[in-house]
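Honest question from a wet-lab person: if I give you the sequences of every part of a complex, can you actually get the arrangement of the whole thing, not just the pieces? Trying it with mine:
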Amino acid sequence: MGKTLFDKIWEAHVVTQAEGGIEVLYIDRHLIHEVTSPQAFDGLRQRNIAVFRPRQTVATADHNVPTRDQHLPISEKLSRFQVEKLTENCAAFGVDLYGLGHPYQGIVHVIGPELGITQPGMTIVCGDSHTSTHGAFGCIAFGIGTSQVEQVLATQCLLQKRPKRMRITIDGQLQAGVLSKDIILYVISKLTASGGTGHFVEYAGSAIRSLSMEARMTICNMSIEMGARGGLIAPDETTFEYVRGREFAPKGAAFDAAVQYWRSLYSDDDAVFDTEYHYRAEDIEPMVTYGTNPGMGIGISQAVPASPETGSAQTYEKSLAYMGLQSGEHLAGKAVNYVFIGSCTNSRIEDLRIVADYVRGKQKASNVHAMIVPGSKQVEAQAKAEGLDAIFREAGFDFREPGCSACLGMNEDKIPAGEYCVSTSNRNFEGRQGPGARTILASPLMAAATAIAGRIVDVREFLN
Amino acid sequence: MKKFNTLISSAVPLPIEEVDTDQIIPARFLKATTREGFGDNLFCDWRYLPDGSPRPEFILNNPLYSGQILVAGRNFGCGSSREHAAWALADFGFLVVVSSFFADIFRGNALNNGLLPVQVSADFLHAIFSAIETNPKAAFEVDLERQTFTIISTGQSEHFEIDPYKKMCMINGYDDIDFLLSLKEKITAFEQTRLPKA
Ligand code: SF4
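Yes, you can. This is the full assembly:
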């Protein structure tokens, strides 16, 4: 029987078998940030041990950082303390840190790929559930808890049970105005927020193959939102070209040798998956969410469903009440005062270009506060080099410095209680963007169109 | 890690589904750099009004309900990988969380912190909620050795699954890291075998 892409990579990383089907999995790259690492470093101190392979760990500060005046000390005391703690820990344990002020600083899942740290065939972990993003390169990447961060720091390994394999195939051609964000919101709306639990997902099909690396990252990023441990896409020429020449990518003959190996990373024709789904790209519309988990999504032409397809009516009603929405209501036309473009889902240069193309020469609606937060210092610099920052400013957008920002509202970038925010991030949980904030997840194009119109629109009607 | 074997306790019902870790512990409380103290902010936005006073209708503020077992709706712990969610539940005093379905990362985080996730069938979960509705002080027995959860008042009992390795760790209070550290030589040898590729 053939092997899946997932099994090929996994099997290349099994150090040894432990009892009960548990395997000791070797981790190639470990990314850390300020929020989920301090307790792990303390654990090492208590045991009086070093970081086992400090060269395989890279740190950045992203979750807690302000997105204005990053050259100044962080004014919020606890955030400053946490970021300082990361700096201290990295210095003490010999880990490279791309902290505030460094030209490589940014959201951990944006910098890994752009620096070439993320490469096909690797195992990558981070104390953050959206580590699944890196799977776009054909690697096994997943989020872990702080106890596991400590384990990886101490041994470069994790104890893991092999998950089930799922394949989601999307064939066909996307409609104009439909982006990869819509693909993944569509898939999650079909599978629900728990439909992928216990699985690692491979995304396949002609619609996936035709996507750029950045668009693929958006899809893999949200695998966790259907409960999957991670998602991955077989590497191809698009992948190799993206990795080529990046800071930490292999160079010259080493690169050619790597590509030769990477070409073997695909699911064999006769590989068997535990679960398979097929969708048609043509069926996907621009998506919006109406509820408080990412599975509660609809095409923009659809109304809020009458009753939950799965789950209890009580939970569903609680969710709609929080969002201030009714069954049968359409989101198109709804006035929105906040738009957030950013997060590890949609803050890369292509996302910014899509937004800039749409808003060029236009003005945001007067009721809207539109925040656009680049994913990294490098994305910010590239946007400036292309003059996108000027386009944003002229359109009345607030172009910030890099960080997680209003994706989780840990810094001061919060959406006020009761307000709607059309957001390109990945979670519409209660209070995710600030206590009482009401998040509507959408693509960068839908977010841009909302900012200009001052209300939710079907962006397809505004494309020429 | 603390050892766990059996527990007899009443339970706190939270019949809500899809409870994500942002609800269990909102992001703004993740600024601490130690594992302690998160219990004060457990379910913060459901538990307290914006002025910081307790919301009387929230279950943790109702003196009728108490115990070291939390019983919640399906897909408990979805969303963020923050281990702080498990720390907050444990710090508050919960030793067991019961649901008909757990998100993967939360399950792992709970097990790594001596908090036992007990997954039961949807019907049995319903029976547990009913027992608490009948008597808020209804007692339950969790037996990790036998892998059973029992509603003492009715005698109904259900077997739950747990990974044998994780079970051994919970019963003995072992951490994964102790085991991994004992493998260092094997890990180094493994690294040698894959140097050319990596
Ligand atoms: S941008 Fe949001 S989802 Fe991504 S790592 Fe930061 S907080 Fe997590």
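Two things worth pointing out. Chain B touches chain A through 56 residues (CB under 8 Å). Strands of chain B lie at 6-9, 11-14, 69-72, 96-99, 116-119, 140-143, 148-151, 157-159.
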